[in-house]
Here is the input.
Amino acid sequence: MAFERLRALLPGSGVPIVPVMRLAGPIGVRTSPFQQSLSLAGLAGPIRRLFSVKRAPAVAIVINSPGGSPVQSNLIFKRIRQLADEKQKKVFVFVEDVAASGGYFIAVAGDEIIADPSSIVGSIGVVSASFGFVEAIGKLGIERRVHTAGEKKVTFDPFQPEKPADVTRLKAIQKDIHETFIGVVKSRRADKLKGEDKDLFSGEFWTGNKALELGLIDRIGDLRSVLRAEYGDKVVTPVIPTQKRGLFGVSRSPSVGSSGEMIARAAASGLVEAVEERELWARYGL
Here is the structure.
């Protein structure tokens, strides 16, 4: 079977090819070697390889992401569209469990978005979350000392009372980011969207079936069935890896050295990131 698939990739075989790339996990720059996240820095090479198969009429991107960094979402979206236009290839996007927030931002890079009936789609909004420990620090007898040059340098210090001016400034930033998100969605799906802006862009999310009704996706389906219907039963779908692999197929983490202290720090950081990632997925009941 592997030999047959390899032969299908050879020039002149006549077998249709649609390369596939899987994007899974939260979106943002990785801050520890234990964190699995999506960023343009890590995906630039795989995206380029995805579009490098000259005789492929299209590419397929499988998304399973609860969102994350709006900047990285936009950068990944732009790179996909730049190469799609340059190489003149159709982009199919397939949603697995969830394409929400930044995940949906990337999804609209597709010329067609396909989801499972039970996929979670949407959440076109911006969120910031934090904790406040003002009373806790007092009960513990801890004194907070912060010295700055610049009156706006400290914002939303969790050990100080929340300031109305800071909230106003944060909401203004969120509004700018939200408008960028809305603009991208409208530019890609303006003639397909159904419903009022106040509903579509409220931050709400829906199942694949409802997303189809709202025009957020194009059809219900799965990768194998859709690509076979489009290009025939013999279509070959080689997967473009998004992570470097070691000798035995294990993902490599070049930043991890042999220092026990370094590994301990990375493990502690990874635990915090795991909690944050769990919170992202939990927003969508996953």
In short: Residues 164-189 form the longest helix (26 residues). The longest strand covers residues 90-100.
